[in-house]
Amino acid sequence: MADKPSDNSSENESQEEQRCGVLQKIRKFNPREVFTWQLAKTLAMGQGLAAFICGTAVSSQYLASNFHVDTPMLQSMLNYMLLCVTYTSMLLCRTGDGNILQILKKRWWKYVLLGLVDVEANYTVVKAYQYTTLTSVQLLDCFIIPVLMLLSWWILKTRYKVAHYVAVGICLLGVGAMVGADLLAGRDQGSTSNILLGDALVLLSAALYAVSNVAQEYTVKNLSRVEFLGMLGLFGTIISTIQMVILERKAVSTINWSWEIGLLFGAFALCMYALYSFMPIVVKLTSATSVNLSLLTADLFSLFCGIFLFHYSFSGLYLVSLVVILIGFITFNAVPTVTKPAEPTTSSSSSSSICEDGCHDNPVTQDDISSKEVSIGIPTDMDLRDDEVRIRKQKRRSLGEENGGEDAAGVRHSTKM
């Protein structure tokens, strides 16, 4: 019976310590440590990328509604061609390991897969509008966030904290408010011919975008931005051209070209080119997950433009959605993520143990060690043999000198006699 009061007192003490710890954290909280210049720059750059996506959406909407032009592969091909002309040319002018020939020798097949993934991600999301509604596209397109976090955890070894998951939940609530505003405003556009197929295409597009963005983050942080954009432009141009000839040959031939259509095509290509050019910079500063959270506001910017250009009806939930998404984005970037270091392999661990012993400073493989042991062992045997020969010669000399001394003494003694 005497143990129960002691247990209760220990529990109360632990609870008081936890409360004191929470209060101390609240008192030590400094807004200047959260709302830094780096966060403001990241937020501004992310919203700039969202504005570029808004430009592509508005130009595509004008082409489809006013001029009845629906050629997503042709529009994407123009973007990849601009990337190829700019960044692939830079790789051609480089020397050494950064040259395009050296890159193609080492990892050409990886960039072929990356180009295929990126092209199909752009194509499937546009194709989904033919089968499902705008609401479904906006909701299911958020599937990219959990896929990105999973791939970052698996491939990039990024470890998230509780605050990051809370921030993602806040951003998704903002997207829900935006979709609710669309439903209230009667903006549930799109087709309902095959909703299941359309939803599947949206999910596929989100997964492909996640793969492309994780590959982009890895390449930009470990290799270079120019290499990523140059190889993506090269293989993206080839793949999109082939796909455009197969799928959109008739649609392109029926376009009644005018300066307005040419201007809209140019605006779409320039916005996409700017998005692809600046996105790696923001990804290198933050992460692919953070950038995609900031891009959730792109639909809102498109809606705000549509209010003036296409006479969409306005809803106060749009502003609520924008504020909620920005709060989630700030919360996500306020807490830094943790990158788990790569586990050492067997060879690296053996070399590190050698370094700890003080024998070698550089990583050494087992073959190098054995070869060095052999090369050291052979001269040692030869040195032993040489020492033996030298000792024998010295013994012979010493014996000869003693014999010579005895003979000389004998001669002197005989002469005296």
TrEMBL record:
Record-level Gene Ontology MF annotations: transmembrane transporter activity
Chain ranges passing through the membrane: 34-58, 137-156, 162-184, 196-216, 228-247, 259-279, 291-310, 317-335
Top-level lineage group: Eukaryota
Subcellular localization: Membrane
Any single GO CC term annotated in Swiss-Prot or TrEMBL for this entry: membrane
Region (Disordered): 379-417
Residue ranges of coiled coil: none
UniProt main location, coarse: membrane
Entry similarity comment: Belongs to the SLC35F solute transporter family.
Function: Putative solute transporter.
PANTHER family: DUF914-RELATED, SOLUTE CARRIER FAMILY 35 MEMBER F2
Protein name (database record): Info solute carrier family 35 member F2, like
Organism: Oryzias melastigma (Marine medaka)
